[in-house]
Amino acid sequence: MNNVQHNLNHIRQVIDTTAQQCGRDPKTITLVAVSKTKPVTMIEQALHAGQVHFGENYVQEGVEKVIHFQSQDLVQRPVWHFIGPLQSNKTKLVAEHFDWIHTIDRLKIAQRLDAQRPQHKSPLNTLIQINISDEESKSGIEPKAMLDLAAEIVKLPHLKLRGLMAIPAAEKDADKQFAIFQEMHSLFLYLQQHYPDIDTLSMGMSDDMTSAIKAGSTMVRIGSAIFGERLKQA
Ligand SMILES: *Cc1c(COP(=O)(O)O)cnc(C)c1O
């Protein structure tokens, strides 16, 4: 067994155990393997280990990987999540190649993706990114702006609003970290009251996935714990 497969098995075990500890069904938690900066050979290893969902941060790099795997004869087609910041001049590539976008924080970007989504594809699964730690430098909208943006996104026929995403600031104190994830979960439940279809709360990375799952995450985005540390800061 190679490292990627070994790490994937371990992460799946952590998800199962954590979910069981808090009385959740592990099947309600989707694992997105974040393959940014990592070669297609590693993605192949993950695919062979049954991994389906992959996350990429950089448009050009991500699109190259999507296209690479389109030409392969695979039992299970990978599902591609765009999880990086998105500028308006790159929306077309995301609309054409990805299955999910996690980082919507402006209506303008959502409208462009809607207009550019190819007709033959199913609607682009969309998450609103919330700036939950209120940091000036990070992307995401303030919680109080969430409902207005959601109301506009649900009008767009080629997007499907699925829920929320957050990248909380790194926090050493586990209780504080958990409290922030709980805040996100409350926002998620609040949005669900307005839009009962939404089903996805994307939060939790290599260092904080167990807190995120305990607080109600339905989608964890795991990079370094599967593929190893990244060289460039990303
Ligand atoms: C890089 C990245 C991840 C994965 O981070 P790890 O700490 O390597 O697990 C998850 N989400 C986003 C948005 C990222 O940019």
TrEMBL record:
<dbReference type="GO" id="GO:0030170">
    <property type="term" value="F:pyridoxal phosphate binding"/>
</dbReference>
<dbReference type="InterPro" id="IPR011078">
    <property type="entry name" value="PyrdxlP_homeostasis"/>
</dbReference>
<dbReference type="Pfam" id="PF01168">
    <property type="entry name" value="Ala_racemase_N"/>
</dbReference>
<dbReference type="InterPro" id="IPR001608">
    <property type="entry name" value="Ala_racemase_N"/>
</dbReference>
<feature type="domain" description="Alanine racemase N-terminal">
    <location>
        <begin position="7"/>
        <end position="229"/>
    </location>
</feature>
<comment type="similarity">
    <text>Belongs to the pyridoxal phosphate-binding protein YggS/PROSC family.</text>
</comment>
<dbReference type="InterPro" id="IPR029066">
    <property type="entry name" value="PLP-binding_barrel"/>
</dbReference>
<feature type="modified residue" description="N6-(pyridoxal phosphate)lysine">
    <location>
        <position position="36"/>
    </location>
</feature>
<keyword id="KW-0663">Pyridoxal phosphate</keyword>
<comment type="function">
    <text>Pyridoxal 5'-phosphate (PLP)-binding protein, which is involved in PLP homeostasis.</text>
</comment>
<protein>
    <recommendedName>
        <fullName>Pyridoxal phosphate homeostasis protein</fullName>
    </recommendedName>
</protein>
